[in-house]
Amino acid sequence: MRTRAVSGIYLFLLLFLLIEVAALERQIFDFLGYQWAPILANFLHIMAVILGIFGTVQYRSRYLILYAAWLVLWVGWNAFIICFYLEVGQLSQDRDFIMTFNTSLHRSWWMENGPGCLVTPVLNSRLALEDHHVISVTGCLLDYPYIEALSSALQIFLALFGFVFACYVSKVFLEEEDSFDFIGGFDSYGYQAPQKTSHLQLQPLYTSG
């Protein structure tokens, strides 16, 4: 029985549950903000988490290795999100097409719905495009770039734990697959084929000419 693997599976599944809930929460708010690039990335992440759960329950180390590889990309994506909203380097929120694929003028849902935010329409604004309006957002307890950055930081934090656990559990699975023989473990115990008893063995027959 795979005692080493079983001891850590329940903790790993609990971590998977937290990661999945955080990903679904992220997906919901990105849908509300029509953020198509994050929506696609979140969908791939949710599928990767399901793959990791399946690999853990079915003792498939390859699936966990694939999940760990995806987490490296996921950490990089969330690091980019943090830099984008905090406008690190040459990144700017004016380039909103990065998040929306240039299909809408929507931004983060938290821009208008953050804690304490008061949204006031600006009428007859020269900045308003056709069929659009300009709004003024004031009184926010925490501005939306920081909310988005904190959300991505949480994703990175969970991903780091997931990466460590995935590597550990997949290593345990690989070790036990190497030491376990599905035909009774004959290799481990130096199995040899049964020998014929002496009275059943063929004996040479000599005849006199």
Write the layout of secondary structure elements.
Layout: H1 3-32, H2 36-57, H3 61-85, H4 97-100, H5 110-113, E1 118-122, E2 134-138, H6 144-179
Antiparallel strand pairs: 1-2
Walk me through the structure:
The chain has 209 residues and is mainly alpha-helical. The protein has a domain at 3-103 and 143-181. It has helices at 3-32, 36-57, 61-85, 97-100, 110-113, 144-179, and strands spanning 118-122, 134-138. Strands 1-2 form a two-stranded antiparallel sheet. Helix 1 runs antiparallel to helix 2 (36-57), helix 1 (3-32) runs antiparallel to helix 6 (144-179) and helix 3 (61-85) packs antiparallel against helix 6. Residues 181-191 have low confidence and may be disordered. It comes from Molossus molossus.
